[in-house]
Amino acid sequence: MINTLLELIAIAAVILGTFFSLVGVLGYLRMPDDYTRLHSTGKVGVFGVVLLTVATLATTGLTFGKGLVLIMLLMLTGPVATHAIASAAYRIGIPMKDPVRDDLSQEVDIDVSYRKLK
To answer: Residue 10: which CATH number?
Structure first.
């Protein structure tokens, strides 16, 4: 009985994790610039990987504590890595497409006049 429940949880987690991963790939393909691509893949990718980790927890002998540590590390390092990549892209001058507001231009001494895509 408990094995059937764990298998159902694993199946649901795999389906949802795969869905989130596919949405992340579609977001990467559809978004206009690097910053929005990072946003879509960063947010959705973390949820996809966390759900696939839940499926692994349900089907393997991995203990709940180790799985919880893995999930917490994924949830902490994913957004930090995405932010670091976006910050580096901004500092080297990768342009945004049609920015509405650029709060970093006041804090970073970079000439932003060339940032608009042609």
So the answer is: 1.10.287
- Cα(65)–Cα(51) distance, rounded to whole angstroms? 16
Does 111 map to a domain? no
- Domain of residue 41 covers 2-106
Task: Give the position of tokens 């408990």.
Answer: 2
pLDDT score, position 118: 44
Q: Which residues contact 39 (CB under 8 A, 6 or more apart)?
A: 27, 31, 82
Q: Say if residues 41 and 27 touch (Cβ distance below 8 Å).
A: yes
Contact assessment for residue 59 and residue 17, using Cβ atoms and an 8 Å cutoff: no
Q: What is the pLDDT of residues 38-87, one digit of tens each?
A: 888 888 878 899 999 999 999 987 888 998 999 999 999 998 999 899 88
Q: What are the CA-CA distances from residue 14 to residues 7, 23, 48, 51 (Å)?
A: 10, 14, 9, 7
CA-atom Rg of the chain in angstroms: 19
